[in-house]
Design a protein that fits this description.
Length: about 240
């Protein structure tokens, strides 16, 4: 992976073996910290999604940024997380540090907290403090409970879904056997199509296209759920 890759694809500062999130965050923040001569100071951090990083991955990065800052005795007054500067579907993330002025820190934070109408900018920027780290076990109920009563049709559908899932669980051995046979047959068919494609048969799908064909079983389930959801909403 490249460290310091440009937003337009310009070569990075260096190329290294792919690292885990914590090591990557430490590499980036150490570089910026040395460049700005940041030690035991107050700052603002921006964690930016370059395009294709998922929200869950981005939050892992935020966690690692927090751990690094705590270890370096850096006080993060505000943290902005989101897709602020992207390059289509570029993989990865960027970190920006703003070293606050000792004399103007209050004013600078006031400017940063000014409400804006930009859709991509967070309505409220958070702050890294020990009291805003939530333990999910303290806030999540042990057993979720429904907030509404099902209609007669909804109750029937619930029982039907439960019965169907139980049947699937009981048929696990048969399903596994069928899936194995289907996978074997599918692999043979793929090889046959690829062979015909190699010999110039235009009536068959090319090998590269075959690799990208979605799993038909998953497609069938997705179509079924898509058709079911509107009826559940109306009920």
């Amino acid at each position: 992976m490249e460290i310091g890759l440009g937003i337009h694809g310009e070569p990075g500062a260096r190329t290294v073996n792919q690292l885990q999130s914590r090591a990557t965050v430490a590499e980036l923040l150490t570089t910026v910290q040395k460049g700005l001569d940041i030690t035991r100071t107050n700052l603002v951090v921006m964690v930016n999604n370059l395009g294709s990083t998922t929200s869950m991955e981005l939050q892992v990065i935020v966690h690692d940024v927090r751990q690094y800052c705590v270890a370096q005795q850096l006080v993060v007054e505000r943290v902005a997380v989101g897709s602020f500067m992207t390059a289509l579907d570029m993989s990865g993330f960027s970190l920006t540090l703003w070293k606050l002025s000792e004399e103007q820190a209050t004013a600078q934070l006031g400017w940063l907290d000014t409400p804006v109408t930009a859709a991509a900018w967070p309505a409220r920027l958070g702050r890294f403090t020990d009291d805003n780290v939530v333990d999910v076990h303290d806030v999540a109920p042990a057993k979720p409970s429904g907030a509404s009563t099902l209609t007669i049709t909804g109750e029937l559908l619930k029982r039907a879904i439960y019965a169907a899932t139980q049947s699937i669980i009981q048929a696990e051995a048969d399903l596994t056997d069928w899936d194995t046979k289907a996978a074997s047959a599918g692999a043979d068919a793929t090889k046959r199509i690829a062979a015909h494609d190699a010999f110039g048969r235009t009536s068959y799908v090319g090998e590269e296209a075959v690799k990208n064909i979605p799993d038909p079983g998953a497609m069938a389930v997705a179509i079924w759920i898509q058709a079911l959801v509107p009826h559940l909403q109306t009920e």
